[in-house]
Amino acid sequence: MSYKGNWSKRGEWLELTPGKVLLSQPDREQAAAKWLLETFGMPEKLYRKLRHEQGIQWRGDRLRLVLFPYRDYGIEPRWQELHVLHEDEFCLVVNKPAGMAVHPDQESEETTLNHVVAAYYEAEGIHTAVRHIHRLDKDTTGPVLYAKNEYAQLKLDEAMREKKIVRIYAAIVQGRVGQELKVIDLPIGKDRYHSSRRRVSLTGQAAITHILSSEVYPRASLLNISLETGRTHQIRVHLSHMGHPLLGDSLYGGPALFSRQALHGERLLFHHPLTGERVEVQAPWPQDMMELRELIIEGS
């Protein structure tokens, strides 16, 4: 579901013009509830919360919703340069650099992308929680999607569950990948002998990787890949299992020709949580990946 009408953000309020059909109803509150749930597509959980907190109001012919309330960031802001790829009132997409985790863990005090996004919000006067919708491995580069309010988070989380958010990666792997390799459909589970590794396991979770295209050179291949599922280390595990580990991926047997796994998120495609419009975000290749590509081409 999506909203095709006019809308505007006024402070913490989203103002909508649902039309004369609602205004003519004898019980506008009941009509608004039905419209919000069935036509506008508001998650019922959020609708109940807004109704309880008096966050749904009529002002003349406009229906107002508290979708942008003041919220703490939920994480300490730490300033660092941030490459913003896309931003609107509901979504933020940033380009994650190599060597930075998306969110902190209990064992490390390192600055993460979430810390940096909090600092960006602070600098821009945006008062909302830092909500990442998906993750990338620490040494993988590319776009990460954030929801800028609870409504966007619920809608984008649903899109992730329904596999409607498309992520396309570039991977440089060892060896010549045959054109016949199009889909890797193998379950992935934890490696009992190594706490941070994953492996193909019949008792693991379903995992499907699609090879969209390939450039094959004598000693390496450049692949474009999309994920149907999002298991931890999925691309790395699947390609290593097929005998084509990523260059630089020491955890999964990749040759030490690169300082990290040669994996970059090239494109992110999703539907805007309010309007339903298709959003496509491209992330430029980092310099080290461009240099590696030239190296494997010259090596041919």
TrEMBL record:
Q: Which InterPro entries match?
A: PsdUridine_synth_cat_dom_sf, PsdUridine_synth_RluC/D, PsdUridine_synth_RsuA/RluA, RluA_PseudoU_synthase
Q: According to the UniProt entry, what is the EC number of this protein?
A: 5.4.99.-
Read off the Gene3D superfamilies from this record. Pseudouridine synthase
Q: CDD domains in the record, alphabetically? A: PseudoU_synth_RluA_like
Give a GO biological-process term.
enzyme-directed rRNA pseudouridine synthesis
Reactions the enzyme catalyzes: a uridine in RNA = a pseudouridine in RNA
Domain of life of the native organism: Bacteria
Asked whether the UniProt record includes Lipid biosynthesis among its keywords, one would answer no
Q: What class of enzyme is it?
A: isomerase
One Gene Ontology MF term: pseudouridine synthase activity
Catalytic machinery residues: 137
User: Is the keyword Isomerase in the record?
Assistant: yes
| A Pfam family the protein falls into | PseudoU_synth_2
> Which SUPFAM superfamilies does UniProt cross-reference here?
Pseudouridine synthase
Q: Which residues form the Pseudouridine synthase RsuA/RluA-like domain?
A: 92-241
Instruction: Cite the entry's keywords alphabetically.
Output: Isomerase
> What is the similarity comment for this entry?
Belongs to the pseudouridine synthase RluA family.
Function description = Responsible for synthesis of pseudouridine from uracil.
Its name, as the record gives it, is Pseudouridine synthase
